[in-house]
TrEMBL record:
One of its GO terms (molecular function) is protein kinase activity. This is HPt (Histidine-containing phosphotransfer) domain-containing protein. Signal peptide: none annotated. GO terms for biological process: phosphorelay signal transduction system. Residues 21-119 form the HPt domain. It holds the Pfam family Hpt. The modification Phosphohistidine is found at residue 60. InterPro entries: HPT_dom_sf (IPR036641), Sig_transdc_His_kin_Hpt_dom (IPR008207). It comes from the Bacteria. Keywords: Phosphoprotein.
Length: 120
C-alpha cells in the first residue's frame, strides 16, 4: 500500500488488520479522527478537576485506539498517565505529561488526514 513515513502514525498494523481493504481503513481512520478528540478533551477536563479515578478510566478507554493507527509512543504515554492516576502517586506529573501529548496528537490527526487523502 502507501509507504508514507509519519512521525506519529504507522499504518502497518491497520493495513494488516484490514487485509489491505482500503474502504475499511478509511472507515476506521475517519472514526478515530471523529471520536478521539472529544475523548482527549474529556481527559483534559478530568485532569483539570483532579478527578484521578476518571483520569484513570478515560486514559484506559483511549489507549487501545492508538494502537490501530500505530501511535505506540502515545499509547505508552497514556499508559503512564493511567498508571499515575490509578496509583495516586506523582499526580503532579499528569498535567505536564498531558500537555506534552496534545501537540503530538495534533500532528497525528494531520498525518492521518494526509493518509486518508491518498486512499481516495
Amino acid at each position: 500500500m502507501n509507504n508514507m513515513n509519519f512521525e506519529q502514525a504507522n499504518m502497518d498494523y491497520l493495513e494488516d488488520l484490514s487485509g489491505g481493504n482500503t474502504q475499511l481503513i478509511k472507515e476506521i481512520l475517519e472514526l478515530f479522527i471523529k471520536q478521539t478528540p472529544p475523548d482527549i478533551e474529556l481527559l483534559g477536563s478530568y485532569i483539570q478537576q483532579n478527578d484521578w479515578e476518571k483520569v484513570y478510566r478515560q486514559a484506559h478507554h483511549i489507549k487501545p485506539t492508538l494502537a490501530y493507527v500505530g501511535a505506540n509512543g502515545m499509547r505508552q504515554e497514556l499508559q503512564e498517565i493511567e498508571s499515575l492516576a490509578k496509583n495516586g502517586q506523582d499526580l503532579d506529573l499528569i498535567p505536564e505529561k498531558f500537555d506534552v501529548l496534545l501537540p503530538r496528537l495534533a500532528t497525528l490527526y494531520n498525518e492521518l488526514k494526509t493518509y486518508l487523502k491518498t486512499l481516495d
